[in-house]
């Protein structure tokens, strides 16, 4: 009996220690999530910046199969393959394939979720709302021309609509393959302090 009671005491102590350890781990994870999530995200972004070389010249070996509206050779992620121009807003930006923070430091980025110019589907491009990028995008008017000059051809789009949407409203930037639409967006408003939760989107159709 004495041995059994001793074993029960040891088991209870083990269970108690396990529960306490679990609580400590939970509290540590909670503290890290609350106080260190932003620095961790920033560190990951810095690593991402180092890992992508955006200093490459425009990738000139990208070609399109006009018969099937499909690229024969896609650009590498983080590589510049075109120039984005909005003459009415004095916008002239290098266009990179990719939309990571490292890419957006240097110019406009194109989401890997969409299509490329000339492929006949939705194209999603974005850039910061700071000076030298898309700070004046909210001034764009219906009928404004947006040009994407690629190494395989030049494409002109006409703005037919603009919207201010929540940052997570993916339904407002739909990916479709039956009509070539350019959706160009930036953070909104331009004078926001901290993380902007809205996006200004300009919708333009291929001429």
Summarize the topology.
Blueprint: H1 2-51, E1 64-65, E2 70-71, E3 80-86, E4 91-97, H2 101-104, E5 108-110, E6 123-126, E7 145-150, E8 153-166, E9 181-188, E10 198-206
Parallel strand pairs: 4-5, 6-9
Antiparallel strand pairs: 1-2, 3-4, 3-7, 5-6, 7-8, 8-10, 9-10
Give a structural overview.
By secondary structure, the chain is α+β, with helices and mostly antiparallel strands. It has two domains: 1-51; 64-206, Beta Barrel (Sortase, Chain: A), CATH 2.40.260.10. It has helices at 2-51, 101-104; strands at residues 64-65, 70-71, 80-86, 91-97, 108-110, 123-126, 145-150, 153-166, 181-188, 198-206. The strands form two sheets. It has an eight-stranded mixed beta barrel. The longest helix has 50 residues, at 2-51.
